[in-house]
Amino acid sequence: SVISAPAIRVVPLADDSQLREATRRCLERPLDIVVGTTGVGFRGWLEAAATWGTGDELITAIGRATVLARGPKVRGAIRAAGLREQWSPESESSAEVLEYLMAGDLDGQRIAVQLHGDPLLDLLQTLRRAGAEVIEVPVYRWVRPEDTAPLERLIEAVSAAAVDAVAFTSAPAATSFLRMADEQGLGDRVRAALAGPVVAACVGPVTAGPLLAEGIPVIQPGRARLGALVKEIAEQLPLRRAVIPPVFGR
User: Fold this and answer.
1) Model pTM score
2) What whole-number distance in Å separates Cα of residue 93 and Cα of residue 70?
3) E-only strand ranges, the chain
């Protein structure tokens, strides 16, 4: 049986002044590097620019830069726009993108980073310390769901070990889950449950990050895909549950 609860919702920023200002900065002088992090975010950026009458200009500016794609979804969005990425990490992680960038000389480079609801502070600060001019492109942000009752009920179930596993599909959702547990006064019990009888299953290493940072063990598939996550849970969960041997003669 399955209990589901949204831990976050996406708020688009098509009319947001910060996004428009970031786009203006991207167009005022040539970009050296553009980092795309999510498919929905990259498409949303181009769509917003189109509504302002600068869509074609933005695509041209991005096309003249070195384009990096964090994963396959944003890679698809980049190619759908008629652009081509120069590199994409196997791990689909921002950390590997940063490692790739830091291997070169970034002093004086203009780098546009499409954010994905998470501020990516470590990445941005490291690039700036290396001498780069970093343009943050906040296409959307994560906020709490309007109705938090389902999430509160799920947290209560986890704290009581009334579920066998919890599947997490994004890092912001994992962070929101833990914060809500703290606000309910159940943070310690939830963390103890996830470290014991309740399995925390994550779609990939990025999603696992907030949990691992708090010492919570996780299971995750070899490939960061929802189908692979379902298969991993189906294989791992029966192995972790206690099996009561049948009584002789019954």
Assistant:
1) 0.70
2) 6
3) 9-12, 33-36, 66-69, 110-117, 133-143, 165-168, 199-202, 218-219
Scan for tokens 């609801």, then name that residue.
Answer: 117
How far apart are alpha carbons 171 and 191 in whole angstroms?
A: 16
Question: Which tokens belong to 178?
Answer: 């833990």
Distance of CA 198 to the CA centre of its chain: 23
- Say if CB 145 and CB 8 are below 8 A apart: yes
CA distance 67 to 55: 17
- Give the residue carrying structure tokens 């200009």: 57
- For residue range 135-180, list pLDDT tens digits in order: 999 987 788 999 999 999 999 999 999 999 999 998 889 999 999 9
Per-residue model confidence as pLDDT tens digits over 196-227: 999 999 998 888 989 999 999 999 999 888 99
- Report residue 26 CA to chain centroid gap: 24
